[in-house]
Design goal:
The structure is a homodimer of 459-residue chains. Chain A has 459 residues and is of the alpha+beta class. Chain A folds into two domains: 17-66 and 105-356, BirA Bifunctional Protein, domain 2; 366-458, Rossmann fold, CATH 3.40.50.800. The first copy, chain A, contains 19 helices and 16 strands. The first copy, chain A, has helices at 17-36, 50-53, 58-64, 80-88, 95-98, 108-118, 162-177, 193-200, 206-214, 216-219, 221-230, 235-246, 253-261, 263-282, 347-356, 380-392, 406-415, 426-431, 449-452, and strands spanning 40-41, 47-49, 67-69, 99-103, 126-135, 147-156, 183-189, 290-292, 303-312, 321-326, 340-345, 370-374, 397-399, 420-424, 433-438, 443-448. In chain A, strands 1-5-6-11-10-9-7-8 form an eight-stranded mixed beta sheet. In chain A, strands 13-12-14-15-16 form a five-stranded mixed beta sheet, with helices on both faces. A three-stranded antiparallel beta sheet of chain A has the order 2-4-3. In chain A, helix 1 (17-36) runs antiparallel to helix 7 and helix 9 (206-214) packs antiparallel against helix 11. Chain A is globular, with a radius of gyration of 29 Å. The interface between A and B is large, with 120 and 118 residues.
């Protein structure tokens, strides 16, 4: 067997204990929040039929899907002619010949596939949360990986606006539990977009507004304005619209927008926004964290109602969450009439934000409660008894195995963030005691083995 | 966009809420046990460089590894000649040309790759646990999937037999926590194999014994005997050996085996077995669950010392766990001198066993504590206040969104295994009360909204 110098696949990373501790801390908080709101856990396989994924993410997306090579003699049916055609078209026509499966690219499409397949047996509204990795053949760069986690919660099979309000409440609760203080849930409604597009005179309908508007933060008002002009907007209407946009942080933007659009055109989205707001207040949500924001567009074209996005003001970072109402998602699999609404937590960015704000509590790195150390072979069985007694009491214990150098055991405990060291020498073995050292405080106390577990029982 | 009738990739499955509840129940118990013994969480990416995996699992294994097609114009460098050669060799020579990455096939090799890459910065002995899916292009059949979970715990960088004893203790504790009563941890030591092979007169050394012996349970003694004869064993020695095997359930097999081998030849493995046993007793392990078993071989050729396997006697099932000591695993990546020992839990089989023995407690399916139901729109805000108050107290609440049919809400709660229904009608809204229905007991009680959360606070 040839020895290869080992390396990671490009754009991937190992999750060592520290990174795992951080991710678990975040995921546990999110999971508790999901469960508290009645969402059930759910997972799909890493691989899907290629046909399930193709065409759902646009042309660029199709390119970035990782395809799995068929097993066995996969070239058996491929002709020379097909090979030569593929050589000429940049391998494009070859993929379907040698690959039938692909890796999950997001959580939404496989979930829609599941709902379409199981609609007869599901208990609607079906509320699920899903926290799984996805894979994209993007060019790797700092902070962008080819394998990363997505965390989604969706309600499917209900049109009730209660869910919009509850998902916003969930956002506020979860981000507060994670320790974020200064964040905003931006809220808009896609139903404003068709009347705005009409008033502007855009021929391409609502998506002709959504796509340029989605870039506003990045490219600035002038560029968006120019694009909208090109798309057929009238100058006067555009000026009025951008005047509104410029004031979009004022508290009465909603009223201003509705005034500009006219009561009739704005009636439906306005009523929805107001009902969501009323429900948020009834749910005692801290509405200082929620803001109507007419500049919010969300790029994806499947949104049809309320849309949301979460931004933090404590560090420079794109959105750390987003989502909205969609009416036709399972339609791609031939199942109509199932409206859904969902939110996503940007796990990787949340980890970066929490890192920068130092929001991870120190205890998450503790491997266990105590490291038991014995000086020589003759105390080995006494040490084992101490270990056994602690574990029987539910205490997390590691038993040091690497000889009689106390210094090494200290270093080992420190590297694993184990807060206590229980030291057993000749004297301790004889008197059935241990010397318990608190590593952070540097204090040490001799105590009976039988008393030891009480030091670690959580209040 | 063409509409495809959705289906799962062959050999894969969705994990709906019930399956997830079961898997989480098992994984939480395993994870608690791992942590209690000082193991740290660890994960590797789903994809590895193909060169990392190739040649580690034998020829059959190489075939079963899922390869990922390169992105972009992956045929760009492939010549017509190469295509034709591959057509002739069953596509074998093509794979390396169009694929550089592959899916994780087990947890062991990627872990060895990680240790080899990071040996300079790890705190040895490095104890990690890992619970992740692996993928194999096996022919799917009942109970065999192409995606399934493995759960491993390993200690690497220590030769101490404490770890053997602790891992056996961990096995006993974890399986008991899962609710299994009648199981055995079979223990043997690979160091017996070279002297046995020598005494039998096998020319092929210890693996010439291990490979046939590993099949003993499946094919029976006569077949194994015939194979060993063919491999050069002497008839007399073989008779003696099979006499021992036939008595291998007696309590003094170890002494008999050592007697047959001779004290000198048996000295090292005997001393190791005895020390492990002494440590098990000192660790207060229920040794009625542990048995020396000279018929245990473990097929994999990388084991070098203690080997273990767990079998349950309550249902017919292969082993539900296994592992052992290995000395050269990181050697495949050019890093020698790191001895390790590890155990694996057969997650899928454990789930089957627990299913058959009905060991899953009913509460694991509860979506949340209570479903709040209001009869009409006018009670909506009161219902929201009840929901908010419960959640503020930490209670898991779902707020029913699908109208005023109590019967539908009942059915919904039952399908989600929600144990309580909090009903709010006109009267309740007026008096700030709720009617709390216990669905299992069929009882109902009117209580003040302010008292409600106390019903759900865990003792």
């Amino acid at each position: 067997m040839a020895i290869v110098k080992p390396s990671l696949a490009r754009g991937t990373r190992d999750f060592g204990p520290e990174l795992m501790a951080k991710r678990k801390y975040i995921f546990n908080i999110l999971e508790s929040a999901f469960r508290k709101y009645g969402f059930l856990p759910f997972e799909t396989p890493a691989m899907e039929n290629l046909s399930t994924l193709t065409g759902k993410y646009g042309e660029e997306g199709d390119r970035l899907i990782f395809k799995i090579l068929n097993s066995g003699d996969y070239l058996g049916e491929v002709s020379l002619q097909q090979f030569e055609t593929a050589k000429a078209d940049g391998s494009r026509s070859f993929t379907g010949l040698v690959s039938e499966k692909a890796l999950r690219y997001d959580l939404t499409v496989p979930f829609a596939r599941f709902v379409a397949m199981n609609r007869g047996s599901l208990n609607f509204p079906f509320k699920r949360y899903q926290m799984q990795p996805v894979w994209r053949a993007d060019r790797p760069q700092k902070g962008r990986y080819r394998e990363f986690y997505q965390c989604d919660a969706d309600v499917i099979g209900s049109t009730s606006l209660q869910h919009e309000a509850e998902l916003i409440a969930l956002y506020v609760e979860a981000f507060q539990k994670l320790g974020l203080r200064n964040f905003t849930v931006r809220v808009n409604n896609r139903k404003f977009f068709a009347p705005i597009a009409q008033k502007l005179g855009l021929s391409g309908g609502e998506q002709a507004l959504a796509t340029p508007l989605d870039k506003l933060d990045k490219v600035g008002a002038e560029v968006v304005k120019a694009e909208l002009l090109e798309a057929g907007a009238s100058t006067t209407a555009l000026d009025g619209f951008f005047e509104l946009l410029a004031q979009s942080s004022s508290p009465n933007t909603l009223a201003q927008l509705c005034g500009w659009l006219g009561e009739e055109a704005a009636a439906l989205p306005k009523a929805e926004m107001e009902q969501v707001w009323q429900l948020l207040e009834a749910l005692q949500v801290d509405t200082s964290k929620v803001r109507f924001d007419m500049t919010l567009a969300r790029g994806l074209d499947y949104y049809t109602g309320t849309i949301v996005e979460v931004v933090t003001h404590e560090v420079a970072m794109g959105s750390i969450g987003g989502g909205g109402r969609y009416d036709k998602l399972t339609g791609i699999f031939g199942v109509d009439g199932l409206s859904g609404v969902g939110v996503s937590f940007g796990a990787e960015r949340i980890m970066d934000v929490m890192e920068q704000l130092q929001l991870f509590p120190g205890h998450i790195y503790h491997a266990c409660d105590v490291l038991v150390f014995h000086f020589s072979e003759s105390e080995s069985l006494h040490a084992a008894a101490v270990v056994a007694r602690l574990r029987a009491a539910g205490v997390g214990v590691e038993w040091y195995s690497e000889g009689n150098k106390l210094k090494k055991a200290f270093a080992y405990a420190e590297a694993k963030h184990i807060p206590y060291l229980a030291i057993i020498g000749e004297e301790e073995a004889k008197t059935d005691t241990v010397a318990l050292k608190n590593l952070a405080a540097g204090t040490q106390e001799i105590m009976a083995s039988s008393q030891l577990s009480q030091q670690f029982i959580r209040a």
